[in-house]
Write a structure and sequence with these properties.
The protein is an all-alpha fold. It has helices at 2-22, 30-41, 60-65, 82-87, 103-114; strands spanning 46-47, 50-51. The protein is built from five helices and two strands; from the N terminus they run ααββααα.
Amino acid sequence: MNFVKRFFGIALCALSFLANAGAAEKPVSFYNDLVPVMKRSCTGCHHPGKLKGELDVTTYAAFLKGGKHGAGFKAGEPTNSMIIEEISGDEPSMPKEGDALSKTEVALFTRWIVEGARDDTPTNANSFKFTEPPTYAKAPVISALAFSPDGKQLPCPAITKF
């Protein structure tokens, strides 16, 4: 009986190892994997309203265009990509403020470039235009109020619909 248990245990481990070894890693997603890292660590200084180094990283196209030091990345060439040069090494030069990116995050950027630096941003990702004002099921939360010094008047914008 022990032989049978041992045999099936070894066989199960071997199959698990082979399944994991044969499974291809999911490609790195620009939109799902990299954009959150850039929002947290890069867009504070590199957005249309504050173009440090003339670099905007808020969209794929702007990131590809790069800034005053050239393109942000070159597909398939991590060693010739400005982003990798800036975020890697023992003392990375970016981000200037805040914590450096983790080795895992730097590896994600590198792998994404090696995989061809695909733009998988959904077509509707940046469309936050409303056709009509939002309708609230409950009154919105009021986080601050302003009132006159004597406390008798409270400025209130016209509310047209609840």
